[in-house]
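Hey, quick one: can you model this chain's 3D structure?
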Amino acid sequence: MNPLARIRTAFTEAGATGWLHAVDIDSGAEIDSGADHPVVTASVHKLCLLLALHQQAEQGALDLTEPLDCPPAGRATGPTGLAAMLDTVRISLRDAAYLMTAVSDNAAAELLLERVGLDAVNDTTRRLGLTATHAPHTFAQTLATLREDAGPAGTQALTDPHVITRLRALDPTRTNHSTPRDMTRLLTAIWRDEACAPEHGAAIRRLLGLQVWPHRMASGFPFDDVHVAGKTGTLPTLRNEVGVIEYPDGGRYAIAVFTRAANPAATLPAVDAVIGTTARIAVDALRSR
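Sure thing. Here's the predicted structure for all 289 residues.
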């Protein structure tokens, strides 16, 4: 079975629809399984914010050591980082960027967006030629649409298939969106130091390498000498990850995997794992050329 057929079969057996693009950062060889399909980015869009932050630091518009205060009132919700804390926190921009990237902290992301600006994030992706990538909403605004669309039943309704169909946050025409190809272009630009100065590219790569979640893309590469750096994104029925796999022989592969599950359950280990499975199939195919 050829790699594309194996990738499609893996998605189907996991109970998901999937879109994938993988590219050898140095040769440009690629694996395309729906690379230009519009997808909801969810927290994957924090990568765009991270780059915009470092571009502004490079331009002297901000200092990454600048402190910000984050009081508990009005924080964006979420299960990690500042969003889960109870007291006022003072934190630097670069440490907020760490929390946003490593544990996908929504409150840290909102702090950074207030400083950087959503327009700047969209300007960053536009200047890189990522024409299919755009963020009409902040992360807090996206969460607000979920609450509004869920209705009086609250978050418990987000596993109801009838409610799922009306969620604006799952429609790429009405929320933050991209394509797998745009995301691998973004990663390639960061790894090749084409998106910002080498100092800032190295800082971004470091943060992506500190992501704590091992159950998606990293699950396909359980080797001590293979380095996985990435950013996940999750919404009801959606599980995504974009990242770069680096081998000890110097091989570097940018991969973007976006999935939508048929089952609205909040916990679907098979769909999480298929991100790693399909990424591994794609990388193995690129390495065998």
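One thing worth noting: Residues 269-287 form the longest helix (19 residues).
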